[in-house]
Amino acid sequence: MLVVSDWSHDVCRAPSEVFRAPYADRVEGLFDGTHDEAAIMEALPPTVEEMLTEEALSRLGDPSSPLVAALAENSRVCGGWAGGARVRLWEEFRITAEPAAAVPLAAWLAGRVPGENPCLVICGANADWRPAG
User: What is the mean pLDDT of residues 40-66?
Assistant: First the structure.
């Protein structure tokens, strides 16, 4: 979420402002769509404290920081997708989507994407989900 928050909210000028070495040099590349969850987790440290700079950690504790505002906005958009948009995709269209792929629909349902009939790109490549029952 931090990488995406920077792309959409410009919360830092360089990854090194948020991520410690050596993660600052690799974190954006890990989220390029070619790495699976296991590869991402293997390349990152086990705790946020090990990954983020002291400055970033202090910004996370400041409710007025742009970083916290960006994460809060992402949370509002994504907050209902697991129980909402992703399930709706299945129930109405029989589309199994990976979790992140339901975010565009969740954003549109929340009124964050304009238009009555937007074009939403939805991928099921990393979906490991089956409807209950």
Answer: 88
According to CATH, where is 1.10.260.160 located in the chain? 2-77
Model pTM? 0.53
Each residue's pLDDT tens digit, 63-107: 888 777 777 766 665 555 445 787 888 888 888 877 777 777 877
Phi, psi torsion values for 62, nearest 5 degrees: -105, 110
For domain 2-77, give the CATH number.
1.10.260.160
